[in-house]
Sequence to fold (742 residues):
Amino acid sequence: MSFLQVTYHIDGAPEEAAARAEAVLLEQTVETPRDVALRHEFVRAHMMGSIREMAPLEDGRGLRVTLSLPTVTASVDAAQFLNVLFGNSSMHANVRLENFVLPEQMQGLFSGPKFGLEGLRAATDVQHRPLTATALKPVGLRLEEVAALCRTVAEGGIDLVKDDHYLADHPFCPFEDRVRACLRAVDEAAERTGRRTVYVPNLSGTPDQVRRQLDFAQAQGVGAVMLAPMLLGLPFFYELVHERLEVPVLAHPSFAGSTRIAEATLYGKLLRLYGADAVIFANYGGRFSFPQETCGQIAETLRQPWGPYRPALPVPAGGMQTERATELVTFFGLDVMLLIGGSLLSAGPALRERTREFIESVERAALTLST
Amino acid sequence: MSFLQVTYHIDGAPEEAAARAEAVLLEQTVETPRDVALRHEFVRAHMMGSIREMAPLEDGRGLRVTLSLPTVTASVDAAQFLNVLFGNSSMHANVRLENFVLPEQMQGLFSGPKFGLEGLRAATDVQHRPLTATALKPVGLRLEEVAALCRTVAEGGIDLVKDDHYLADHPFCPFEDRVRACLRAVDEAAERTGRRTVYVPNLSGTPDQVRRQLDFAQAQGVGAVMLAPMLLGLPFFYELVHERLEVPVLAHPSFAGSTRIAEATLYGKLLRLYGADAVIFANYGGRFSFPQETCGQIAETLRQPWGPYRPALPVPAGGMQTERATELVTFFGLDVMLLIGGSLLSAGPALRERTREFIESVERAALTLST
Fold:
């Protein structure tokens, strides 16, 4: 029999936390009193799971508990997997999902990133340094303003320029017009610079709306797309990746919450497993509060070898400054995308120049690191 | 101009929390430094939003902050609404979404429950007492066992019997076979009792899988369906309700988390807004830790008058005991569905009798309450 191993941190004094571990085991499998479940032979033989390991947490606040949950129930579909991983127990305020180990028998359910880190390097033609990216914002820019901004950063040499995640199909800047205008802008810049920036539209809406946007964007020839998997739903994200995606996809963290799933597991494993080629996360020292160590773990988890799954590209973001390029490259290494929005945009008329300086500082930092 | 009013609780000493309030305002609107946003006339005029109210929290731990966020950006689609409500700020560990007021101008985006509380009363033909429900579990029951269980509780007179949320399209109990077998079981019971229990299958998978399941179940004549909107994605749930649903839908709380969106707002407002006819939540005194007051608020919020939206039915659940029927009816009133799983199932061979006693205790409690 094959098992999915899932590790939770459970708060509480040892006996209390141990009792909760048993409760989580039942909650994530049979969801009935144990004696009810044991009455049925097939359930008893195949569904019960077990507590595999239980050890005190370093901070003394509870237990690290690893459960073996039956693959036979978790592997049925992309929603059921989440259900077994952290369905009802997500409502237990004292339980945090720490990690999981996917058994080989389940690797067929997921194909992971379709393009991954190498696919993004190929799409941008950047091989030996971090990728650079910026965002088109604020929401409320009219079509011509968005296109002008896109052209300017493309002329400055940025590798990717993405829609802000607040750019949806607004009447004042409709999706299809924006995709056309931005592709024209990066083409015009390419004629002058000889290098084509990858424009990345943001997809938003219900599954039908998002599918239409993706089809349109791909038909127009975009080099990548972005969407927020936790907002749109991981099972839908999975379906889109498996059945329709022809270019790399950047995962945006909107609506991802912050406290009940370990960051390295959510951003590093789950999003990669469901098919993100690059994962944007709230970097340390920015507008959000993830510690530096956590950010390092997210990046490592995204890139490390994992079964049949391509490595994905970490994208630390959320209030980064161009001045931090050297520090960030030193910390994250070469396989990273540096996404800098507001700090670039605040350059105003000097935006093209500031963009060029940003790229050059990344190139220098990469050279220093490589030698 | 029209605004969506959103209230957050922000932790911190007064000055610190006030600075965070300004940061949340920028984060949930233009997501750039204020001076960058103000450079653009349309943005300045239509996108900035404002802090409408700010007051110390009763417990002294922070501020209650109400923001006015521009409807023009929030109302574009069912994903963008969540994005503006609690997109990036969900990553701020010190920010909790408390509440929102939907302006009339946005009510056209949502149609809320298609059937609602009254639709569920009509579907079950129960008018003057709480609805009773139970679950088919544990996962791992074979087809014949599920059908037998379904028949027994139907003969006992239960109003609704739903699949456990862990029942997906498993090879050992496939979805379509289960729907057929359970409908046959409730029909057979109806021939003996004269009353037809509503069987509620659980829908799980990617959007395409769930659509196929829904189409099949509706074609077979089920009286209601269940799914987990936070697991499948709220925008997909919205689309399913608006475009395909022909019977009431019960929202299951799996993957809903517990701590960063006020329970009454998540279960009471958001799920109703997106179209749930009945909302299952973790009741006080069960396997989860929601306080009684919170449960009361969820129920009130689901049922209270709200613009054009039908009232939805609260479904307190999660380790309820049949013995608590009187207490629960007294607390929640008549407009409630009592969902009792394990406690009924543990009756074993006495299940039909225990089911009948459960219904009778609800009828007695309702009579006492009405007189």
Q: What stands out?
A: The CA atoms of residues 190 and 196 of chain A lie 5 Å apart. The first helix of chain A runs from residue 14 to 27. The mean pLDDT of chain A is 94.
